[in-house]
Amino acid sequence: MKVADTEKRHFLQFISRIEEEGIVVIDNTIGTSVYYEPFISEYLVCSICRSGYHYAKYDMHDLRFVSKDISFSFPNHILVTEEVSEDYATTLVVVSKEIFDEYNTHFSFRRRLLYEQHPTFHLSDSQYESVLSIVDAMRALSSSGMPSRKYHLTTLYETLVKLSDYYRQLSNPNEGVVGSRQRISVHFFDAIVKHYRLEHSVAFYADLLYLSPKYFSDAIKQETGHGAKYWIESYILVEAKRLLRTREDLNMQEISNMLGYEDQTTFCRSFKKGTGMTPTEFRQHYE
User: Is the pTM here over 0.70, yes or no?
Assistant: First the structure.
């Protein structure tokens, strides 16, 4: 089911504004993911579903996002939209890379891994209205022209994060607190984004985090349900699909080089193992 309202906007239309202002409220959007295409956001995105529904795959797991749901999506996760209702609309609060890096300690939830794995939860009617009131204040502040608005927007965003997490704890009291061991996957995901073009081995990432390969592998499996190699290959596969569909100027050897493969043959073999198609067949299929 495709989105019928062509007036609705995609947040990628606002990239320059996000980078310039740091924190941006975007209304009447169709979400973050391009329909049926793997999408990886570089931003911290708070999404509030105003109406309709959105079904997707989030890091290969099913995600259901419906009216009065809220989600906090950290950078570098994989989202693939599968179905969207005609009346689907969200309000997004998008945080730039600069602001996220600068205030990462403020934006890192005490239970961040829960959001990394399960970004979405439902708000009651009163909770929903309270969250919207903070977003309304952010929207007004953003358009005020006040010189110190970036600082105050950051403060309001911290309030939004803390209040939302409090609501999540009220509705899900049995969710566990993330311990120090469980934070390994957070650092691992960030490391994949930085190093996947040069390093594909599990041993490299274990060494980067000062852990033995066995301890590292066991921890990632325990935290995410999949081994470290699965996540490395999944991220590279999504990047390969994105390049094949959006960079027609690149040939297979160039894409292979960009993804860190020793040669084109290895890249093609790996891609076919993950998709059932060669890179050329995939590109032709989606032309």
Answer: no
Given pLDDT bands bounded at 50, 70 and 90, which one contains residue 167? very high
* CB-CB contact of 197 with 262 (8 Å): no
- In order of their start, the domains of the chain are 11-171 (2.60.120.280), 188-285 (1.10.10.60)
Cβ atoms of residues 259 and 267 within 8 Å: yes
Q: Residue 197 and residue 193: Cα distance in Å, rounded?
A: 8
Helix (H, G, I), strand (E, B) or coil at 251: coil
Question: Where does the chain show beta strands of DSSP type E?
Answer: 23-29, 39-40, 44-51, 53-58, 61-66, 69-73, 78-84, 89-95, 120-122
Tell me the two tokens of residue 71. 């989600």
Q: How many Å apart are CA 2 and CA 83, to the nearest integer? A: 7
Q: Give the CA distances from residue 46 to residues 56, 93, 107, in Å, rounded to whole numbers and listed in that order.
A: 16, 5, 11
Following CA atoms 67, 134, 174, 118 in sequence, which dihedral angle do they give, to the nearest 10 degrees?
Answer: 60
The full DSSP string for 63-98 is EEEETTEEEEE-TT-EEEEEEE-TT-EEEEEEE-HH
How do residues 39-75 score in pLDDT, each as one tens digit? 778 788 999 999 999 998 887 678 999 999 999 988 8
Q: How high is the pLDDT of residue 5?
A: 42
What is the C-alpha separation between 69 and 153, in angstroms, rounded? 22
The SS3 of residue 35 is: strand
